[in-house]
């Protein structure tokens, strides 16, 4: 988790060490009920986390992005 403030912009990020996702999932990543079928140890969750996050950020006038492989293993 980290962030930066520059010229009136705030950038926040969260990193994990999960399996990430494949390129074919990326276009739908922020859609409801989308889950990557990677190496997740549990099948919990319904795929709403990024959809809800995008909705909250957009309602505050911001933007959201996601990168798989941004860290050694996982996503940012």
Q: How many helical elements?
A: 1
State the order of secondary-structure elements, H for helix, E for strand: EEH
CATH superfamily: Histidine kinase-like ATPase, C-terminal domain
Strand order of the largest sheet: 1-2
Oligomeric assembly: single chain
* Helical coverage, percent range: 10-25%
Question: pLDDT below 50 for ≥5 consecutive residues: which ranges?
Answer: none
Overall geometry comes to: globular
Sheet-strand content, in percent, reads: 5-15%
Q: Let me know the largest β-sheet.
A: 2 strands, antiparallel
- Overall CATH class: Alpha Beta
**How far is the N terminus from the C terminus?**
9 Å
How many strands appear in the DSSP assignment? 2
Structural class: alpha+beta
Task: Give the radius of gyration.
Answer: 13 Å
Count of domain modules: 1
According to CATH, what is the topology? Answer: Heat Shock Protein 90
Mean pLDDT: 82
Tell me which CATH architecture applies here.
Answer: 2-Layer Sandwich
